[in-house]
UniProtKB/TrEMBL annotation:
Lineage: Bacteria, Pseudomonadati, Pseudomonadota, Gammaproteobacteria, Lysobacterales
Organism expressing this protein natively: Luteimonas deserti
Protein known as: Protein-glutamate methylesterase/protein-glutamine glutaminase
Alphabetized UniProt keyword annotations: Chemotaxis, Cytoplasm, Hydrolase, Phosphoprotein
E.C. no: 3.1.1.61, 3.5.1.44
The organism's place on the tree of life at top rank: Bacteria
């Protein structure tokens, strides 16, 4: 089996050593070298030709973002950002995702050695997923035809409530911070209400919601427990909480749930989708965007069985086709579309 070749770039010698040791424990990963700053990294990339780069967001001699921007322009390759759990770290990491980074992991605030060890499985999984990711050219758009899948063998049980409002539910993970931006910036200010779940650390949720809000005509906000779900608004769960949709007469409200992780995630897409299937049924429309793993696939199937139209992002435009591919394999998706077509299709299905 060909091993994933990784170059670790971090100005901290301790972090370089720890990441190297944690990654090297996986027989499918080979750490080919490390670098203390982007200028050294540039030379080692030329000489070692790694498959994946782990990159600290704040480093001396050259800013991590400036290096990433140059790298994606001159030699695009999969990059996993290593970020601090701070508001500044969140802002820089989200900018890095916009520049083309595949995913990110976060440094613990205290107890670095033990903290990184606790995240070892996540770090290794994200690096291996990045090795097979499609690195996005900064301004490239890939136009692909809509693919309609065969009807599911599972019986559809349509559940339509008294409300005439429609509800759009979207889930994403790796690559999703930018994919959600692309979808939301194409939505009109009076679009149906949207409920979102993106796998993201607790400290990143508010900066992420604010970033999406700047790019959308809709009002994008962190959900508050019990608040009414309104058209023209998009709701993202606050840090470390699942988001559920509950029915209140003919309306819907947000329910925040600090319960245990589902599919190793909190928030989890399956939690959101299952609640939408139960509370909105055929009044909902749902989509899974790019992401690692299979979170959301079973919830999307429940939505389809409840009579909701379902779709997923296609493989060609996904950074990682894990979650969308799992939904297709399960028979949960009625359509496969390129990212640039998803917003229009969600609106058309909601109007229908």
């Amino acid at each position: 089996m060909k091993r994933c070749r990784v170059l670790v770039v971090d100005d901290s010698a301790v972090v370089r050593q720890l990441l190297t040791e944690l990654l090297a424990q996986d027989p499918e990963i080979e750490v080919v070298g490390s670098a203390a700053d982007p200028l050294l990294a540039r030379e080692k990339i030329k000489r070692l030709n790694p498959d994946v780069l782990t990159l600290d967001v704040e480093m001396p001699r050259m800013d991590g973002l400036a290096f990433l921007e140059n790298l994606m322009r001159l030699r695009p390759m999969p990059v996993v950002m290593v970020s601090s759990l701070t508001e500044r770290g969140a802002d820089i990491t989200l900018q890095a995702m916009a520049l083309g980074a595949v995913d990110f992991v976060t440094k613990p605030k205290a107890g670095l050695a033990q903290g990184l060890a606790d995240y070892a499985d996540e770090i290794r999984a994200k690096v291996k997923a990045a090795a097979g990711a499609r690195v996005r050219a900064p301004a490239a758009t890939v136009q692909q035809p809509l693919v309609r899948l065969e009807a599911s063998s599972a019986p559809a049980v349509a559940t339509r409530f008294r409300t005439t409002d429609r509800l759009i539910a979207i889930g994403a993970s790796a690559g999703g911070t930018e994919a959600l931006r692309v979808v939301l910036e194409r939505m009109p200010p009076d679009a149906p209400a949207i409920v979102l779940t993106q796998h993201i650390p607790a400290s990143f949720s508010r900066p992420f919601a604010e970033r999406l809000d700047r790019h959308s005509q809709m009002l994008v906000r962190e959900a508050r427990d019990g608040e009414m779900i309104l058209p023209g608004h998009a709701y993202l769960p606050p840090g470390d909480h699942h988001l559920r949709v509950i029915r209140d007469g003919a309306r819907w409200r947000c329910k925040l749930d600090p319960g245990p992780p589902v599919n190793r995630h909190r928030p989890a897409v399956d939690v959101l989708f299952r609640s939408v299937a139960q509370s909105a049924g055929a009044n909902a429309v749902a989509a899974i965007l790019t992401g690692m793993g299979d979170d959301g696939a079973r919830g999307l199937l429940e939505l389809r069985q409840a009579g909701a139209p379902t779709l997923v992002q296609d493989e060609a435009t996904s950074v990682v086709w894990g979650m969308p591919g799992a939904a297709v394999k399960l028979g949960a998706a009625q359509e496969i579309l390129p990212l640039e077509a998803i917003a229009d299709r969600l609106l058309a299905l909601a109007q229908g």
